[in-house]
Amino acid sequence: MELRTLRYFVAVADELHFGRAAARLHISQPPLSRAIQRLENDLGAVLFERSSAGVALTPAGAVLLDEARGLLDQVERARVRVAVASGVAVLTVGLLGDSGDPLVARLADAYRLRHPDVEVRVRETELADPTCGLNAGVVDVALTRGPFDETGLVVRELRADPVGALLRDDDPLAGRGSLKLADLVDRRWFRFPEGTDSRWPGYWNGGEVREGPVVRAVEECRQAVLWNGTVGMTLVDHPPGAGLAVVPLVDMQPSPVVVAWRGAEANPLVQSFVRVAAAVYRGRR
Q1: DSSP 15-75
Q2: Is the distance from CB of 263 to CB of 78 less than 8 angstroms?
Q3: pLDDT in tens, 166-217
Q4: How many Cβ atoms are within 10 Å of 157's Cβ, its own excluded?
Q5: β-strand partners of 119
């Protein structure tokens, strides 16, 4: 069994969907299906039950999943240990703006437990750069949010969070149970600095060109709402702060949390970070 085939198998087992697994692996679905079929033929066992309802692991598939994770973990640890022994044991991680996500702390714990000899340097960036320095080449991997221009990058979604309008708590709309973007059409919002990737404000401004103060950080957005009564955007489950309220937006797509790295990146520290991040955000340690 080749390591690549095992990675393919784990991706399908994680996603329980060949299409999503192929997208995660950045390959088309037919070669993925063929690789799994060859693996099943080689092992003489059916690994997945395929039906119109979806994909499910068979008992044999569950056994292989446990073994495959162990094998891939051993390979990953070996690569990182070699990197440490050769003096290449520094990983620079880009984080976007407000790093208040509690899973970031869990990720730090999990990565440190796995690789205690690796020095992790964190670079927190302003909202104007959703790639957190990847495109500038100043970080090795980024834990951030989409959307942004993914040219030359590999991007893996970890989670998606519902978003809402951030308003003053005395705003006439603050008491609503939910809002639609049309309810805010005549309101002043916020803007990102000139030169920001258009996909980023395109999402956070609800697909419209907005007027309002320029913000570079999450706290600046909160303060703009508090002082000026503009509309801000935030995650529904983030505490808004004193004097502010969050109202869910029912017609906004959830905000994706992603891990991103350069497509040609072969650094084992990056690959390990991606795997640990995926495990933490899926609830595994």
Answers
A1: HS-HHHHHHHHTS-HHHHHHHHHHHHHHHTS--EEEETTEEEE-HHHHHHHHHHHHHHHHH
A2: no
A3: 999 999 999 999 999 999 988 999 999 999 999 999 999 988 888 999 999 9
A4: 16
A5: 90
